[in-house]
Amino acid sequence: MNHLVNADLHSHSVVSDGTLTPEALALRAKANGVGLWSLTDHDELGGQTQAIEAASRIGLPYLTGTEISVTFAGVTVHIVGLGIDPTHPELVEGLRETRGGRQARARAMADDLARVGIGGAYEGALRYVDNPELISRTHFARHLVETAVCGDTHEVFRRYLVEGKPGYVPHRWATLRDAVGWITAAGGVAVIAHPARYRFTANEEYALFTEFCQLGGQAVEVVTSAHSTAEYVRYAEFCREFGLAASRGSDFHSPQESRIDLGQLPDLPGQVRPVWELLESRIH
Ligand code: AMP
Ligand code: MN
Ligand code: MN
Ligand code: MN
Predict the structure, then answer these.
(1) What is the mean pLDDT of residues 260-272?
(2) Which amino acid residue places its CA nearest to atom 13 of ligand 1?
C-alpha cells in the first residue's frame, strides 16, 4: 500500500463514544473513499469482529485498532494500537482493567456537576451509553447539549469536564509502559495519538517521545483533525528526529459533532514513513 492511500486509522463507534455502529462506519468510510480503515475505540476491542466483517464484505482494507487511555506526567495521553490481535489475553485483560474505574469516575463527575446546580447528569449521560463499561466524558457532553446547558459539545469541553471546571474528576489510567507493552505483546504497533492536544512544555513532550521510543513505540499521528498545518510539519520533524513512522486519522466520532469526516484529511507530508508500511502483513 503506497504513501498516498487514503488511510483513516483513528475512529470511534458506539462501542466507545462514537454514535455510529462499526458497520455504519465501514460503509461511511467506503463511501468517503477511504482505502485503509481502523476502528480505534477507547480502551475497548468489542467492535473489532464487526469492523473486520463489515470491512471485508465491502472490500475495504482494515487494520484492527484501539485507543488506550494513559496517565503520563499527570496528564491523560492517548496511545493508539494498530494491527493488534484483538483476542490477545494480556491486551484484553489490560483494557478490562483500564475501563474498570469509569463507573465510579462518572458518578463523581455527576456529583461535581450537581454542586453547580446541574442535577441528574449520571442518568442523563447513561442514556447515550451503548456499552455499560465505557461511560465517558463525551456521553456527559451529549447530555449537557441535549439539556441546553451548552450549545454544542465543543462548548462543553471549554466550560465543563476539563481541569479546573465543574464535572472534572482526576483519574489515573494505564501507564505508558503498560499500554505500549500490551500493544506490542499483541503484535501491534503503538502510536502516540494527537500529540498537540496535550499542551505539554517542550521538555515534557520530549520526555514523552523519548520514553515512548525506549518502550518500543513506533509511530506518531502527524495528520489528525486535532492538528493544524503547522503541527503536521512539527510532528513530521519529530518522526525524523525519533525515527518514528507517521499515522493519519480523523478521530471521527459522529456526523453531528466531528469537524472532519472519515477520509477527509490532507495527505501525509512526503518525507515521512507511513505507519501502514510497518503493518502490511496485518491488513485484513
Ligand atoms: P474520557 O475518556 O471519558 O476522558 O473522554 C475523552 C473523550 O472526550 C475524548 O476521546 C473526546 O471524544 C472527548 N473530548 C475530550 N476533550 C474534548 C474537546 N476539547 N473537544 C471535544 N471532545 C473532547
Ligand atoms: Mn472520544
Ligand atoms: Mn484521543
Ligand atoms: Mn480518539
Answers:
(1) 96
(2) 138
- The residue with cell 480523523 is 250
Residue 1 predicted with pLDDT over 90: no
What does the mean pLDDT of the chain come to? 98
Give the integer Cα–Cα distance in Å for 238 and 233. Answer: 9
State the Rg of the chain over Cα: 18
Percentage with pLDDT > 90 across the chain? 98
Counting ligand 1 atoms within 8 A of each CB, the residue from 17, 69, 98, 168 with the most, and so the one to mutate, is 17
What are the structural domain ranges in the chain? 7-98+174-282, 102-159
User: Is 85 within 8 Å of 169 (Cβ atoms)?
Assistant: no
Determine whether domain 7-98+174-282 maps to CATH 1.20.272.10.
no
Check if 138 has its Cβ closer than 6 Å to any atom of ligand 1: yes
* 102-159 CATH: 1.10.150.650
